[in-house]
């Protein structure tokens, strides 16, 4: 890894493409002045956008391609049509070839994961990759995975995810020994499905040095921040994540309506508007944007497809952190210390 | 069913036992003056509590038992020790024997479900029971099931739940043809696990007259109230429910902290306090308390173990509604109209 972190960007990905990616990159570079970018996409569109951003001066190399992956392409179709040629593939390939330290795309999640697996390959010792996100909690943030890479799981996969999630938590939260919980329907030993119960047994027995296995956690523990890492299967994790997003929006709607119903409430809103502003910022999903693909031979970050420049910049920040603190080596070191039962 | 609804109460269940159950019953009776109760529990405790509630005058028959199920008893242990004798069992048995129209307990969920299955039996055509709850949405409420009765599922069970959930929605929301969604990680046809995909195919093909199959819904659709009924497997449903509860608490904590940080915010809070009060009431989980056991030969409602009298009263209200509108017959009628592929 170079001292100066270089991020490859799928400049055509997401609902808004270059009009979000370029200002997002500018915003992120303001916070990390040494950072450089490889931008893959349509030169004719990208060149003027980059030129208009003084914060990107001398930091961007544009690699021309007009082939991009549509948000509703099926993964298999995207791979067939986009392999080698598309902005998404080339951004990933730049990581594989050592030209970039991490790739960021706001494109179609399924296609991005399929291409990442083919192009980068999964790490030795890892059965299936996972997507991790930073979940805002009352204590700060937790790493939660898998939020949708794989449907269905077994105990070994849950243990692998515990190891990878802990590696990410060590980096992001700068902790020596993060706590890890397994998401379940109760905290008692007999609760849950076979995979969760068996994973709990394995994690208790292994007593790995680099993280502390906490036990089962429940849905309420996510917002509470009970553990630094929460591990679950991808179907459940995806639904939990979107349920929390939906609940936050629902409460925001209640709040808006309550604050505009009476004159007294409107006066109250006027005085408390800075507090509301702070709350809105705290609840802003863009702040925690970015899904980290774990278990691949390279760093790939998925930005939410509908994010604005601020959200895309948060995904670049995350890519920068992962690359600078050498996520890959941290995961490899931790896997090396994991008994063979898992890495077999 | 008698004209006057009679509810049997496990008066010893829950974290607070009779001190919540008795005032909860009084509160509910204020709203449904014709209602009567069979209360199962320790006479020495119950008699003075009931006598102290004028709203319960002439409405309560106490059935003495000193055996109760602890909140942390394993279901198998609870059945062994409490079968026939405990307040929980007897409350359920009163429904089986036709002495009560519905049973309510705030006791241990696993024990209540195990006893209900043994005592009442599952309905013909139903593989496994489910627990349904009323989920608050921006549009009102939705029926969501299963929130934790069964871990793991198959397509047939999901279809059964769609039918039972729709029956409940017809009653609670007074709708002729409620909409039903299957909870999934995306709305596209190829998304999800095999059970969900197969259930979607079955529901599309069946075109049942008494509800409209909407398609897949995501976690964000829960708070949005996209469909009247949302069907999912019990592990995921339980985690989604608790994640939403946790998120609501988290945002309430943010809000409290934001409103007390500056003088201006405090002044704003003062003026808007009625609006905050309305919001608090809207977010109050007690309002939507009560899990309905569906798929049994009788109505059993689970109240949250830590609820106060207000929450317990909401569970009784739900039991009253289910009994008065003959939930059992509505489910049976709808199952009769369901093709044999499912009810086989």
From TrEMBL, chains A, B:
<dbReference type="GO" id="GO:0008654">
    <property type="term" value="P:phospholipid biosynthetic process"/>
</dbReference>
<protein>
    <recommendedName>
        <fullName>Phosphate acyltransferase</fullName>
        <ecNumber>2.3.1.274</ecNumber>
    </recommendedName>
</protein>
<dbReference type="GO" id="GO:0006633">
    <property type="term" value="P:fatty acid biosynthetic process"/>
</dbReference>
<keyword id="KW-0594">Phospholipid biosynthesis</keyword>
<keyword id="KW-0012">Acyltransferase</keyword>
<dbReference type="Pfam" id="PF02504">
    <property type="entry name" value="FA_synthesis"/>
</dbReference>
<dbReference type="InterPro" id="IPR003664">
    <property type="entry name" value="FA_synthesis"/>
</dbReference>
<keyword id="KW-0444">Lipid biosynthesis</keyword>
<comment type="similarity">
    <text>Belongs to the PlsX family.</text>
</comment>
<keyword id="KW-0443">Lipid metabolism</keyword>
<keyword id="KW-0963">Cytoplasm</keyword>
<comment type="pathway">
    <text>Lipid metabolism; phospholipid metabolism.</text>
</comment>
<comment type="function">
    <text>Catalyzes the reversible formation of acyl-phosphate (acyl-PO(4)) from acyl-[acyl-carrier-protein] (acyl-ACP). This enzyme utilizes acyl-ACP as fatty acyl donor, but not acyl-CoA.</text>
</comment>
<dbReference type="InterPro" id="IPR012281">
    <property type="entry name" value="Phospholipid_synth_PlsX-like"/>
</dbReference>
<keyword id="KW-0808">Transferase</keyword>
<dbReference type="GO" id="GO:0005737">
    <property type="term" value="C:cytoplasm"/>
</dbReference>
<keyword id="KW-1208">Phospholipid metabolism</keyword>
<dbReference type="GO" id="GO:0043811">
    <property type="term" value="F:phosphate:acyl-[acyl carrier protein] acyltransferase activity"/>
</dbReference>
<comment type="subunit">
    <text>Homodimer. Probably interacts with PlsY.</text>
</comment>
């Amino acid at each position: 890894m170079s001292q100066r972190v270089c991020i490859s960007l799928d400049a055509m990905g997401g609902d808004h493409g270059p009009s979000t990616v370029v200002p997002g990159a500018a915003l992120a570079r303001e916070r990390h002045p040494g950072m450089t970018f490889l931008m893959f996409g349509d030169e004719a569109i990208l060149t003027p956008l980059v030129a208009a951003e003084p914060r990107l001066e001398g930091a961007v190399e544009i690699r021309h391609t007009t082939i991009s992956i549509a948000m509703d392409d099926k993964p298999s179709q995207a791979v067939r049509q986009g392999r080698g040629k598309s902005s998404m593939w080339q951004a990933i390939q730049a990581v594989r070839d050592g030209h970039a330290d991490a790739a960021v795309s706001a494109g179609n999640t399924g296609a991005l994961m399929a291409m990442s697996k083919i192009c980068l390959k999964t790490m030795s010792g890892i059965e299936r990759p996972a997507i991790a996100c930073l979940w805002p909690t009352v204590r700060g943030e937790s790493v939660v995975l898998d939020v949708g890479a794989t449907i269905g799981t077994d105990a070994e996969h849950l243990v692998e995810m515990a190891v990878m999630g802990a590696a990410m938590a060590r980096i992001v939260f700068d902790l020596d020994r993060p706590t890890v919980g397994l998401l379940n329907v109760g905290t008692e030993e007999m609760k849950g499905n076979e995979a969760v119960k068996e994973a709990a047994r394995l994690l208790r027995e292994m007593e790995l040095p680099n993280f502390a296995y906490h036990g089962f956690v429940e849905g309420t523990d996510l917002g509470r921040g009970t553990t630094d890492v929460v591990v679950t299967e991808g179907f459940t994790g995806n639904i939990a994540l979107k349920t929390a997003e939906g609940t936050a929006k629902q409460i925001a709607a209640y709040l808006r309506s309550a604050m505009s119903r009476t004159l007294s409430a409107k006066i109250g809103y006027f005085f408390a508007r800075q507090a509301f502003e702070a709350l809105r910022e705290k609840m802003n999903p863009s702040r925690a944007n970015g899904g980290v693909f774990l278990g691949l031979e390279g760093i790939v970050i998925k930005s939410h497809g509908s994010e604005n420049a601020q959200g895309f910049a948060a995904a670049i920040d995350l890519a920068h952190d992962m690359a600078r603190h050498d996520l890959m080596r941290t995961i490899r070191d931790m896997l090396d210390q994991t008994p063979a039962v898992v890495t077999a």
